[in-house]
Each structure stands twice: as structure tokens, then as C-alpha cells.
Amino acid sequence: MLGVLGLVITLFTMAPQAQADDGVVEMPVLVPSGADYQKNLKAEVEFWNLARMAKAALNNEDQDAVPPSGGWDSLSKPWPVGKGLIARTAGKILMEVTDQDSGARGLSACSGDVVTSANQSVVVTAGHCVGYHLPFNANILVDNMVFIPGFDGKNLQRHTTSTDLPGKDVAPYGVWGVTREWVTGTWSASADWVLGHDMAALLVANPQDPRPIAQVTGAQQIAFNQPRAQHSFMFGFPTANERNYYAPAKNKVSAALQRTVDGRTLMVTEGDAWADPVYLNDLMTGAQPPGSSGGPWMQNFDPATGTGLQTGVFSRYDDPAQIIGMLGWQEGPNLSATQFGDEEYAVFNTAQSAALPPAVSSK
Question: What is the C-alpha separation between 100 and 90, in angstroms, rounded?
């Protein structure tokens, strides 16, 4: 997630596929339906061999996560592998990123969550995870986008050159290709975090499994226009320490609070949220740096069962000392969530109403 000056309202130049009457914008279709649907879906998923996955999914520091000296705390701590529904529905998103202006290409990561939907195939994440246009910065589109529910990076070797595909030790519920993606009209028109509504809904499918994803992983309940400033939980797969407010190199917090992340692990932040009076998001102090963008923001969460009510997605950072300052938007110390309202419901409803191509298994 990229920080911005926050004063310039911009327009997408990435030719969205369609804009509905309710303002929902569909991004370019990643896997079109038709005769080549299954072949293209398979190619999208198999782009992510172990070498590419390690490059995108792990930090670039050759170092695994280092806990705070007093141990992990409510600012962020690893969620136990396999514990409850959230361990299946929350996942890592990997994508190839292209700057439409310069042609530069790279790999990146976000987080997402499977939610209840009519077609049982919807994952929600942040709008900036699927694309944005910023002045003096980037005109970003994504391709080869996949969702890995229950991602487990402990056995993912760094700097591997293996072209093998990941097994169930890394992707226990498979690798799901993103076929279509929608964002809010506000995010499409002002993709700079000023006006918010940084949310996207993804349609996913697996070339190796004809079932919709919710039948494989289960799904979290999703809700809109819920009460603000509640006790909340945020889940994500943080990866990048160069913008980690709590990293030792930053020297912004006491040694007891300093920590690093590695991208291998689902992390959870818990705390009392408060409403941001300027940007109309909910805020919570937490230590989840980039890579956690798009992770689920939950109310009424039960740690015993891993179930809750998803009311938002992690969008950006906030520093109360820099209301519109770029540095505060890049590092924190607070996590800022897009809370789901009418625009986000329209995006979700469009995605859950989308027709699915005929399910075909290549097994």
C-alpha cells in the first residue's frame, strides 16, 4: 500500500471494463469466459511457481520474523495455523504488477478473505490491491492474480529457483485464480485515499477443483453499515519491513515494542477502534505493515471458533500528528480500515450476482 500527498484528486487512466448505474466499476477481466477459460485460468494459477511465490510472498531481508522482546502482543501476533474458520478463509493475494506509464513489472502481495455470497466465489480485499493511478507516482494494473486461502509460508524456501508448483504444505486449500474484479466508484475516481472507499471484490476459481471456494474453505459473514468504533480484530499477512513503523531500524517505538515480519504468517491485531473524523474510516493501533492490505476487519469475533462479522478491510496507515502527511499515511502507527457502507455493498452485490463459467476439473 502506497502513501500519497492526499490533496490531489485523480482519475483512473486504466480503462475500466464497465461502470454500472450504481457506480460499481469493473476492472479489466483477468480470465474471460469462453472456450479458452479453463486454459487461461490454469495459466494464471501456474504462473505462481515456488520461485515467483517466494519472491512475492516473503520479505526481501533474508530474515524471518523477530518478535518483540516481551513476546507478541495485541498490536500483532501470529494466528495459530489451522485454528478456526479464519485460518481457512483469510488468505494471501499474489499478483504481477505493471506500471502502465513506464512498462515496469514486478510482483506484489496483499491479503483477502472469503465471505458469504450467493455464488460462493467472492473474496474481498482493498481496492488498491487491484489497481490505482497516482499523480507523479504510478499507474498500476495487476495481472496473474491469485488468492491462497490458509497460506502457510513456513516451508516456503527463500531464493528458491524451483519451477515446481506449491503443494498443500504452502497452499492447503489450493491456489485460486482471480477471474474478475470490481471496485467502488469513489475509489475508481479518486484512488488516492482522500475520499476512501478503498474496497474491491474478487471472483475466484480453481482449475483443479470444480467447487466454489466457499464450499472448500467456508466463508465469513459480511455486513454493511454496521456501528463504528467497536472492539475489532484485523487479520493480514504483513510482509514489508521497510515501511514497518515497529521495525528496530525506525527507532520510533521502545525496544520492547519493536518487531519485524516475514510474510509467512497470518497475523492478528486486536483492540478498540475509533472513528476517524477526517477520512471516515475506523482506526486501531496495530503493527501490521504492508502486505496486510485488504485483510479482514472483524467485529463480534470469537477467537475460539475463528468466526466473526467482517465489516471492513485494511486500507492504509494513519499518524494523528500528520493528518494529511505522506509519512503518516505510509507507516502508521495506526491501522485505518475502509468500513463497508452502501458503495461497498454495491460492489459486493455485483460480484456475488456474477454468473460463473461452467465448472471444469482438470484432475
Answer: 30
- Report the distance separating Cα 80 and Cα 306, nearest Å: 10
At residue 176, what is the residue type? W
164 in Cβ contact with 50 (< 8 Å): yes
DSSP 304: T
| Alpha carbons 186 and 355: distance in angstroms, whole number | 25
* The three grid cell numbers given for residue 270, joined into one nine-digit string: 486486536
Based on its alpha-carbon atoms, the radius of gyration of the chain, rounded to whole angstroms, reads 19
What would the DSSP string read from start to end of 155-213? T--TT----PPP-TTT-TT--EEEEEEEE-HHHHH-TTSSS----EEEEEEBTTB-S-H
Check pLDDT > 50 for residue 184.
yes
Q: How confident is the model at residue 6 (pLDDT cuts 50, 70, 90)?
A: very low
Reported pTM:
0.91
Whether the predicted pLDDT of 142 surpasses 90: no
Q: Which pLDDT band holds residue 140 (cuts at 50, 70, 90)?
A: confident
